[in-house]
Every structure is written in structure tokens, then in C-alpha cells.
Design a protein that fits this description.
The chain has 234 residues and is mainly beta. It is built from one helix and 18 strands. The chain is 7% helix and 50% strand.
Length: 234
């Protein structure tokens, strides 16, 4: 009886050792680091990366789908069927937003790997050649006949000297900071705007930053809020 049991255990072990499985081998993350796009904002700008994919198992790997998170990403695969030891690539293209900041997206790879789908994270820190702290003119409390202040900070990351001139077509808005501003890479400046409303109620104002940087010749700013009658003094 014990001899029969030993034979059965050996058969189970041998059959387990002989069970071939596919296994997807690829990285978990693509990080482009800090990217300063060149060219005008009107053009689509992107980063690319070729992700190697390998079948590290001992059975045929079939990749059934590569799913991107949004329309800003494409990820075509060169070959969806891999024999053991074979390699292919997924060609990632990630379109960059018009603003600055960190962007994180995901690509999910589905296959017959028994361990399930594989998730690839895409990361990039977008640093525009001219980076505004805000494009909104956030005025302090606005009283009729009184001057209220708004500050707009900006930093230049372009590899060239940039000249900036601020202006406003809106009545009651004036630029306090002397113009023009001339900034080189890494320099930061604040532009001070003043607004003096002439009547109570809602207001909507605009301002423009004209620059010498190609693609960023005109940067529009806006602000809105309510103007109040100043409280009467006792």
C-alpha cells in the first residue's frame, strides 16, 4: 500500500513539473522624467518609448489586447504571439497636455499568462518653456473706486532669453510692474495687476502677455468677481 502511494506521489510531481505555462515578462513603469516641450502650443507634442516584451515561460504566449487609458495614448504591439524565449515590443506614444505638471497614465496588457493582466504605468513631468503659476487674475476684495491687486508669477525654462510685455484691453486694469520683462532660463518674475471698478456688480476682465518665444507669442489671462460699494464710515 505504501509502495502504491509513493508511486502516485511521484506521478503527481512529474505531471506538475511537466505542465507548461506562458509567462509575460515586461517592465512595470516608463518614466520620462522632466520634459520641456519645444514648438508651439498649437502643435501636438508627445513622448515615445519602445517597451520590450518577452515570453519567459515555457508555452506559447498570446497577447489578446493592449488597452490604453485614454485617447492621449497609443500602444500598438509588434507581435501578439510569442514562443518561449521570443521577444516583441509595444510602441508607446503619449501626447502631452498644453499645461505644466505631472501626468500619469496606464496601459493594461491582457494575455493567456495565468497570473493575469499586466499594468504598465506611464509618468512624465511636463515643464512648459514658460510656466505660469496661474492664468487667473485673483484680485483681492474689490470695492468701487478702490484699487485691488492681483499677482501672476511665471518662470522661464526655455533655452533662450524671453522678453515679456503685459497689457490689458479691460477698462480699469493697469499693469504696475515695469515693462518689458527680460528673463533667461530658470528666472522667475511676478507681474502685478491693479483693478479699479467704477460701479458695483459682477466684473470680467482680461489681460495679455506678449512674448518673444515662438509658439507662446500670446498668453491670455482672465479674472472675474464682484465689486462692492465701500462701507460708509461712521
Amino acid at each position: 500500500m505504501s509502495k502504491l502511494r509513493h508511486v502516485l506521489v511521484m506521478l503527481v510531481l512529474v505531471s506538475g513539473m511537466g505542465y507548461a505555462q506562458p509567462k509575460l515578462g515586461m517592465q512595470n513603469e516608463v518614466d520620462w522624467g522632466t520634459v520641456t516641450p519645444s514648438g508651439p502650443l498649437t502643435e501636438t507634442q508627445s513622448v515615445k518609448y519602445r517597451v520590450p516584451v518577452k515570453n519567459v515561460g515555457d508555452s506559447t504566449l498570446i497577447i489578446s489586447n493592449v488597452r490604453v487609458q485614454c485617447g492621449c495614448t497609443t500602444a500598438p504591439i509588434e507581435d501578439d504571439t510569442l514562443l518561449p524565449g521570443e521577444e516583441t515590443s509595444i510602441n508607446i506614444t503619449l501626447n502631452l497636455p498644453t499645461g505644466s505638471g505631472e501626468l500619469s497614465k496606464y496601459v493594461t496588457v491582457f494575455s493567456n499568462d495565468p497570473s493575469g493582466a499586466h499594468v504598465l504605468r506611464l509618468k512624465v513631468l511636463v515643464q512648459r518653456p514658460i510656466q505660469l503659476a496661474t492664468s487667473f487674475l485673483a484680485f483681492d476684495r474689490v470695492d468701487v473706486g478702490a484699487s485691488s491687486r492681483a499677482l501672476v508669477g511665471l518662470t522661464v525654462y526655455a533655452d533662450t532669453t524671453v522678453t515679456i510685455i503685459a497689457s490689458s484691453p479691460s477698462e480699469g486694469v493697469r499693469i504696475v510692474t515695469p515693462m518689458p520683462l527680460t528673463l533667461t532660463k530658470g528666472q522667475t518674475a511676478e507681474i502685478e495687476f491693479r483693478y479699479t471698478p467704477q460701479k458695483a456688480g459682477m466684473f470680467n476682465v482680461q489681460a495679455v502677455l506678449n512674448t518673444t518665444l515662438p509658439g507662446y507669442e500670446k498668453i491670455e489671462l482672465s479674472g472675474y468677481g464682484s465689486a462692492f460699494l465701500a462701507p460708509e464710515k461712521p
